[in-house]
Structures are given as C-alpha cells and as structure tokens.
Amino acid sequence: MQFANFHVFLQKISNLIINTLKLKRMKKIFAVAALMLLIAVPASAQFQYGIKAGLNITKPSLDMDMVKKDNQTGFFVGVMAEFSVPIIGVGVDASLLYNNKGMKLADATTANAWEVSKHLQYIDIPINLKYTYGLGSLAGVFVTTGPQFSFNVGSKSVSIKSIGDYTLRDSEFSWNVGLGAKLLGHLQVAYNYNIGIGKTSEVTYTVGLDVVKKKLKNNTHQISLAYMF
C-alpha cells in the first residue's frame, strides 16, 4: 500500500510538472503571438490620399409653421487622407472640402407669396472613424462615423420676406454617419448623412408684442466619389 501511495504521489508530481511546462509554453506562445501582432500592425498600416467630390441634398430644420422647408441640391470637392490597418479593418479618414450647399425656404401659409433659395459656402473638415470589411484585395465595404467642423466662407446674411433677416454663424458642428464601398484599390463610393448639431443661425421675429427666436440647422444627404493614390 505504501509503494502504491508513493507511486500515486510520483504520478501527481509528474503531472504537475508537465502541466506547468505546458502553461509556460502557452504563455511563451501567447507572448510571441502578441509581439508579432504589435510588429505586424505598423508594418501593414496603410496611408492613402486622394481627391473627393460629390453631390449633396440639404434640408433646413426650422421649427416655424409659417415657413416651408424644401430640399436643395449642391456640391462639394476637395482632398482626402486615410490611415488604415487592414489586419483589423479599422482606420481614420479626414477631408478638407469646399461645400456649396443649398437652402430653400418658402411661405407655407400663402401659395407663392415668397421664396428664398440660397447657396451657402463652407469649408468642411470631417474626421471619421472607419471600419472596413474586405472582400479581397480589390474590394471592400465600410461604415464611418465622426464629427464635422464647418466654417462659413460665403454670405452670412439671409433675408426672409415678411419675417426678417438672420445671420449665419461663422462656424458650426455636425455629426456624420455613412457607408460605402472600396473598389479596385483606388475608388471609394460612399453615402453619408450629416446631422446638424450646432445651430446654423438664429431667426428673430415678432409675433404681436412677443419677440420669438428660432434656431435653424441643416441636415444633409451626401453621395461622394473619391480616388485614392
């Protein structure tokens, strides 16, 4: 019985040593794999730049029942840069764009009483986090989201007949949500929805003896095409 117990004891010690060695080996393998990943990420990271252009459809958001808000088309053009890590599909893109977006307001109470159609000129800087799912070396689909900073470089005054004048802000803040596709290693086709967060302007008018202030924001649909070098 004593010999049998000693044999069992030796067997347990042997198993413990083997498991310890296996654990150390697994730790080493894990450490080497993590180190290889850290080395591979910068090595596989890609930087591209290119030109970007597209069309937009803008609709003002203004809480005034007497004013009808309509869609108006415009365009944008500029340069774009993208930093991405294909091994994990995550990247960041940023653009510097000249944006000529339209704004259309009309009288909602009397047919054809007045209408204001104006093109607003901005320098837009969207910065988006991008996740790409690759379908091969020549194609992939992606989703994007991120902030956009816009600076008014055009006219800052708009007159609305029978209501009054309002002044556009020098800058505004908005948020982008989009999706698109990468094709042939150079082309990117995308749809983006730009949601106005900061106000574009503030309209002040009088109703009876009361002075009323309303905020105007722009929400914009965009379709773009970019060529990356």
Report what the structure shows.
- This protein is an alpha+beta fold.
- The chain folds into 2 domains: 1-44; 46-228, Porin.
- It has 1 helix and 12 strands, in the order αββββββββββββ.
- A hairpin with a 3-residue loop joins strand 7 and strand 8 (164-167).
- 25% of the residues are buried.
Bin the helical content. Answer: 10-25%
User: What's the count of strands?
Assistant: 12
Note the quaternary state here: single chain
Q: How large is the radius of gyration?
A: 29 Å
Strand neighbour order, sheet with most strands: 1-3-4-5-6-9-10-12
Structural class: alpha+beta
Distance between the termini: 79 Å
Could you tell me the mean pLDDT?
Answer: 78
Determine the strand fraction and express it as a percent band. Answer: over 45%
